[in-house]
Write a structure and sequence with these properties.
single chain, 12 helices
Length: about 200
């Protein structure tokens, strides 16, 4: 019987329009393509491995005439509106009291600053979870066995009684290796709401 739901899709609950952000950034900087080192850097940023200051320093080194405020504005473009129906769904799960809800997120400090300042529902969203782990708080990266073991131990979770939900196939495989039940969800869709309404009872 599933007693705990672990989500690792901040990029689904709080949508990140990565492709739109890249196109917008290239247009803003008047470039036709990203150099390889910039692609690698952006990948680290998306994983929560780059701090706000490192982000600004990198882009100012490549585009010396760019101001910090302009850089943050450009990348804030990637954050879409928070989907309120997902918050309603989380509140429903929380009120049922059937599951412990835990969120792992590779969201970094730049994302969180934007979310807190622009999404009034952020506090309500956070309150839906019994535990809430962010990359810049516990050095969380894309989940590995050490991080899974840390979260399981801290919350007294038995792996077989846990369902891990993610939009990343590698993370799913890591969870499976620890005998954690898993569900692979397509990113940036509403599958998360239909997932439990139609299928969770199978567990």
């Amino acid at each position: 019987m599933i007693k705990t739901l672990i989500f690792d899709f901040g990029n689904v609950f709080i949508n990140l329009d990565i492709e739109g952000a890249i196109a917008h950034t290239m247009k803003s900087f008047k470039i036709e393509s990203f150099p390889e080192e910039m692609i690698a850097f952006n990948s680290l940023y998306e994983q929560g491995l780059i701090s706000t200051n490192e982000f600004i320093e990198f882009y100012q080194a490549n585009f010396p005439n760019t101001q910090p405020e302009e850089l943050i504005s450009i990348w804030n473009y990637m954050l879409k509106d928070f989907p309120e129906h997902r918050l309603d769904f989380l509140k429903k799960l929380k009120s049922e009291g059937k599951y412990k809800l835990i969120l792992l997120s590779n969201t970094n400090e730049l994302h969180i600053d934007w979310i807190k300042n622009n999404i009034p529902l952020y506090d309500e969203f956070k309150q839906c979870f019994d535990a809430f782990y962010l990359s810049h708080e516990i050095q969380l990266r894309k989940p590995n066995q050490d991080i899974f073991k840390f979260v399981l131990k801290e919350n007294n979770i038995i792996p077989q009684e846990c369902l891990f939900i993610d939009d990343n196939a590698d993370n799913i495989q890591t969870a499976k290796s620890l005998d954690i039940n898993t569900w692979h969800i397509t990113p940036n869709t509403d599958d998360v709401t239909t997932l439990f309404e139609t299928k969770l009872h199978l567990f």
